[in-house]
Batch of 4 targets.
Target 1
Amino acid sequence: MSTYVIILKEKRPANELLLKLKEAQTPILNCDLVEPLNNKSDHENSNSYISEEVFANQSSFNNIKILNPALARKDRQKTLATWLIPFGFVAGLSFSQMTDLKTFADMGFPNQLEKLLGGLVGMISGVLGSFFSAGGISQEIVDDLRALRKKSEEGFWLLILELPIEIEPPWAILNETDSIEVITIGKE
């Protein structure tokens, strides 16, 4: 998917843009409207324009996975753990079975538990693998996130659009909008 962050001065143009995109039948996978960290606009004025249909999920900067690397890391860690832990158990069990080592028996554990304990050690390695593998993000994304955080702190609204990778964003509609800037964040 391709992710575009449209930086806007206020909420009203975001709602207008979403209406235009819906009329143009643009396939949007996900849409989030991020309120400014330093909200200078008065809430009564910005909320008076909202139509009955809500097109975007409105939330704060730190609750959006793409803007908060810690949330994204937790999600990746859970995903990795779901297959690394069972794989580690099976690999540890298999390794103990194939090598017939007596590592745990030499430590005083019963010989019957040797293979099971090998599987548990494999599970522990799966947990550690999911923890360390889910780490880092690229420096380019970190720089984009800093710029977006700065814009949000300055009082700008961020409209995050996720489109299918094969779909080019409707630049004509985006150019009609009173936006400050459009930032593209990594393609998956």
Target 2
Amino acid sequence: MGKIFISYSTKNQKVANALCEYLERQGVSCWIAPRDIPSASNYAGEITRAIKSCERFLLVYSKDAGKSVHVKNEVNLAINNTKAILPYCLDDSPYDDDLEYYLSTRQKIASCGVQDQDFQNIATLLLGHPVASPREKTETAAPVAKGKQPNKKILYYILGALVLVALLVWLFILRPKPGPRPEPGKPVDSLLVDTTARVPEVKKDTVSTPPATGDTRKDNTTIDNTKKDNTKKEVVKNELADTFTGTIRNGYPDGYGTYTFKQPRRIDMHDPEKRMAQKGDYIKGDWTNGHLNYGEWYGADGVKKGNIELGDNAADADHVFAKCVKP
């Protein structure tokens, strides 16, 4: 079976990821964003190629998915490329007007309210044969035959032999050998080793006077203070600029990548919630000419703060995000 493309709204991402993991454990190969989009790749291009190459199109539908522009674009691509579409409906909300024309005649799987049962039904439909639930597999597991259990007496014999070998090695190889015994009438002090000859004589006149300018290292080499000052100036300049790991066009993010804030600022002027990013926050998402189309917002501690889905604002002339540099 070829790959299954999973389409979903960002508000249903948790369910979509759990469904993807379950299907792959059953042997069904899946493609899901943003997991399968390489870093710094074109977000829209990767999704288009994945839909064209997939065998089936699995839509996680909900009221939120009906409002998503990206979901509608993906369904339209699947229809244009004659892909088999399987809607998995999380709730009883009717299809959006833009989707009803395509999905009203399609077979769908309505949620029964139990996620494990829903996933099992989807896997059974995709594979064409019943799939046992994890609970059933545990109850029907065959017990271990008693005849195959290792003999405890043999293990004890092997352990005792290993201990005996280790003792013999210590006695005849590793144990420290005693020193020479003094001869009768010879003082014991004569057997001591004179270690004074091994101490090298310290030459007091080898330390040179450090130069008048510059810092001095232990090996008497000097450090140019001018170079240290120039380095500090460059670091301060870079610390004030936001960074972006993807493509930067005319100083602004363009394409898929990670944008890191170096100072507090509003995320996007088109954001109806007027959310503010703090220093160290970062966004993984897709930009068009400095405008954020879709992204996942994380704090400096790596904890996810939310999803941002604004659509393509490339037609606007103004730039929302500040100019950025490579990290």
Target 3
Amino acid sequence: MKRVVVTGMGAVTPIGNNVEEFWENIKKNKVGIGEITKFDVSDYKCKLAAEVKDFDAKAHMDAKTARRMEPFCQYAVAATGEAIKDAGLDLEKEDRTRIGTCIGNGLGGVATIEKEHKKVVEGKANRVSVMMVPMMISNMASGNVAIQYGLEGKCTDIVTACATGTNSIGEAYRYIQYGEADVMVAGGAESPICETNVSGFISMTALSSAEDPERASIPFDKDRCGFVIAEGAGIVILESLEHAQARGAKILAEIVGYGSTCDAYHITSPKEDGSGAGRAMKLAMEEAGIKPADIDYINAHGTSTHHNDLFETRAIKYAMGEDAYHVNINSTKSMIGHLFGAAGAVEFITCVKSIEDGYIHPTVGLKETEEEMDLNYTMGKGVYKDITYAISNSLGFGGHNASILVKKFED
């Protein structure tokens, strides 16, 4: 099978609308959480979210095209443009039938559904927008990116709830491994901050009720009380090593393992013993041919909910045994909240940047853990160390588990 490398990255996040700005703010421990501005939250128990700031879609596409996209598609198109540029990929010289897209979205265009459904209940069904369906369906992040950049290869949309971004990159990795594409544009995009989604997650008691943005998303902390809803996109360019080297590409990292499993246990809770997520990590390590002791860093799913953080801790112990106590673990969600379908993709980018800079950011806001959560969650301040292998974990409602293993590139 072909070796697969990362050659470009792009991001739109609550703490930066490109990778450089995002990473600089990661190193500053910047928290991108604040009061929701997209609708009136006066009567809501949860008032905080991690919104994208100062994003101008027209800087990335013409105004008419932008109006025909939900924000999650706009974010995907913008992040893809950055990733293609970062990769130095000249699309005019490429066989675009060999360039595919695999960009996932977990929730779809619920804001569009809200807006258009209101017309229906008000007796104005004949005024529903002709653009409602193409704006609401989740595959349109992948579709719009392919259209915008003329990418004619395999075009897919992976939907595995909060594991979407990681599964999307993992499946794109497989496509290249098996020769179905030379290049894949992969990742996730999400714009979920609307009344319906927030109301639904409040009803599930899944959202943080904290009023202090600095204490709202606090993964692994004993006072955690739920996740913070967030938006954005993360996109990476994956290539076969052969293709990347033939065009003299800058190689950022190599993907060497991918594991995907199901808990087959509960519609929202992870499996209590962590075995499902643990098996995904084990599969990724087995594919790479490495031992738990070789792992330098784990970017945890770390949502700041009681069940996730406890059961993911068990999963890490299940996968790594005693070596679980010697690895640096963190949660990027402590700064940017939970981007759902985009979370795994942005966290994958964090892993690549961590390898590149030899820096592991702290789990910001973490002050005190509980008795069973006794691993090294990188509390207080970041750690500078050489990183050869990093794992990024994502766990989704429905029991979806995905782990992707990234390695510092060596010829």
Target 4
Amino acid sequence: MNEPFKIIFEDEHIIVLEKIAKILILPSPKKEKYTLTSLLEEKLKIPVYPCHRLDRETSGLIIYAKTEGIQEKIMDQFRDGRIKKAYLAFARGHLKSKKGVLAGYILDKEGKKFGEKPKKAKTLYRVIREFKNYSLIDLIPLTGRTNQLRIQLANIGNPILGERKYAFGKDFRVNSRRLALHAYFLSFMHPVNNKKLTFRLDLPQDLKAFLS
């Protein structure tokens, strides 16, 4: 996928996209001209409202609303823990246990700058496959903290390949041009007709390279 996004689903209320890595959802304080939101608005010729975030470096599924009212309804589902999300990550080394729970209090780097307090974070994980110097892991976050998966995997000594915020490049035997994290699964209730919507993606081509 060469374009910055691909529309997976669209109706009169919501849009579900697959986003590539290296693009922001909304401008940072640097006021970037091109973001996923601005490019989608340019394509659809209407205002759109992101219902959650993915890091610039993370690829995968993201929900947009076509009105602020619909955005609020979907964000309520996130706040109540009613939306199921899952990620695939390639992490350094091998985890001590093949499956388990990552739980504890975490704080991202920006939060530390502003004196925020650590917040409780919980993620279920399962090792799918092990390679010589890294592992493919399935991750289901049960809370939605900023950089949650990145911080938790770095904290147990298995940072995600391509991590430069919570690990050092010199610590990796295998290099990745970007954070090897992909939001591959999303399941939620449609905010208007209340029907269950479920989406699943394959790994993008750049991450498939790690399988071989």
